[in-house]
Amino acid sequence: MRIVLLGAPGAGKGTQAKKLIDKFSIPQISTGDILRKAVADGTPLGKEAKIIMDKGELVSDQIVLGLVKERISQPDCKKGYILDGFPRNTSQAESLDKILAEMGAPLEVALSVDVDFDVLLKRLTGRRTCKGCNQMYNIYFSAPKGTNCDKCGGELFQRDDDKAETIKKRLEVYKSQTEPLFAYYGKKNIVKRVDGVGDIDEIFKKICSLLNK
Ligand code: AP5
Q1: Residue closest to 213 by CA, chosen among 25, 22, 23, 82
Q2: Assuming Cys at both sites, which of 86, 146, 159, 192 could form a disulfide with 31, CB separation 3.0 to 4.6 Å?
């Protein structure tokens, strides 16, 4: 199954992607995670990307396309994958389609997790992630029992781009550059939408039924 996850920053794409990985044994390809790793590793690409990410803007198409093309060619993507945070604009979507046409394996579903903007703000400012195992928490909705990760005891951190001012910019960029993808994938008849507000497991059940799984 080849899926693209659509939805605003904080809609729960990453949260639901983790559940899809467990159920379908296909990898999640998150361009945000790949870029954050490059930032943490201090690579030249990471240094370039950090300046843009901290402003809440989009990293250049050229950078992300190279990363995605390389990743989807790996053997573990043969059975399918979950693209999370990519494509982010129509130009990225067109480039992806060309790459997939060459591979003879087009996208099957563009799944949107829908959440109102007022809820997103709380989700993003409240998000905490484990440095050790990437488990996600939210101090408002799903707080850890203590100050560290419930699963592995790792230290929890707040993303640099989860500050109120940067969040505002990310939501603006989403509206202007990413929302047009609904029309793009709508023409291909592959859009499925789920209400992303409510219990995380219930949302996942709805996703599975949308995917007929
Ligand atoms: P990226 O990492 O892709 O971030 P994003 O799209 O802004 O999405 P998020 O990761 O913030 O949110 P999410 O929908 O995954 O929500 P989550 O599950 O974490 O991108 C970051 C930056 O990298 C971009 O701004 C850009 O600069 C760059 N970039 C990345 N891809 C790029 C590309 N293709 N081109 C150019 N630049 C690119 O959930 C959020 C919170 O809500 C968590 O605390 C979670 O626990 C909680 N939560 C989730 N579901 C629920 C629920 N049902 N109820 C209550 N709380 C919930």
Answers
A1: 23
A2: 86
End-to-end CA distance of the chain: 11
**Torsion over CA of 59, 65, 67 and 68, rounded to 10 degrees?**
120
Residue 213's pLDDT is 74
CA pair distance 172, 54, nearest whole angstrom: 14
pLDDT tens profile 115-125: 998 899 999 99
- Evaluate if pTM is beyond 0.85: yes
- Sorted by where each starts, the structural domains of the chain and their CATH numbers stand as 2-26+79-210 (3.40.50.300)
Q: How far is the CA of 12 from the centre of ligand 1 (A)?
A: 7
The residue whose CA has the least distance to atom 29 of ligand 1 is 32
What is the DSSP code (8-state) at residue 81?
A: E
Q: What is the dihedral of CA 123, 133, 18, 128, to 10 degrees?
A: 0
Burial (CB count <10 Å: 0-12, 13-18, 19+), residue 122: middle
Nearest atom within ligand 1 for CA of residue 60: 36
- 181 C-beta closer than 6 A to ligand 1: no
